[in-house]
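Quick review question:
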């Protein structure tokens, strides 16, 4: 089945040539998401918790645009710039996944925008297309 881009209404410009999400055969792949406004500027500079909330709201928007919910998320890849922010990220993350938790990993690394503290990429199974 061909890939269908998933672009929520009001999506701002991206930093590179990609779609916020892509769906194929009922699986939504959400691109690595940073806390960026519509002009690709980092928001909530210095606050990992607020950035995590912003990122998860963006991911939620992509999944809902594809016809799913956060309960359909099966896997998250989490990238943080400093382990000191791990607890803040997890505190917000737990609010978005209160029941059964999706599989995930978390690594410390550099991100494409120096003010960004967290990036999350997601996979969700929302059902068959068509």
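Suggested answer, residue by residue:
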């Amino acid at each position: 089945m061909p890939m269908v881009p998933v672009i929520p209404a009001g999506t701002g410009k991206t930093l590179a040539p990609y779609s916020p999400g892509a769906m194929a055969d009922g699986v939504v792949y959400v691109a690595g998401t940073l806390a960026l406004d519509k002009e690709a500027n980092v928001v909530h500079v210095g606050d990992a918790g607020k950035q995590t909330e912003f990122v998860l709201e963006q991911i939620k928007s992509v999944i809902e645009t594809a016809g799913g919910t956060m309960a359909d998320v099966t896997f998250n890849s989490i990238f943080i710039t400093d382990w000191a922010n791990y607890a803040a990220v997890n505190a917000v993350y737990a609010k978005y996944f209160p029941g059964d938790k999706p599989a995930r990993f978390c690594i410390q690394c550099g991100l494409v925008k120096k003010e960004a503290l967290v990036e999350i990429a997601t996979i969700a199974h929302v059902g068959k297309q068509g």
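Why it works: The two ends are 10 Å apart (CA to CA). The beta strands are 4-6, 21-24, 27-33, 73-80, 103-108, 118-125.
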